[in-house]
């Protein structure tokens, strides 16, 4: 059986780094992560440059 949790994460580098941050943080409290589905991408902009990359995703994992 799988369970899905919704996560939010951000990075100063990239959306990929934000997704890795979400995954690493989730793995501190859940085991057997199987996938991450990125539902939404967002960025903060200051002076014409992206300063923060944000993702909203769903992480699925196997229940013991």
TrEMBL record:
Pfam family, one: Dodecin
InterPro entries given in the database record: Dodecin, Dodecin-like, Dodecin-like_sf
Entry-linked SUPFAM superfamilies: Dodecin-like
Superkingdom of source: Bacteria
Stated name of the protein: Dodecin
UniProt source species: Methyloceanibacter caenitepidi
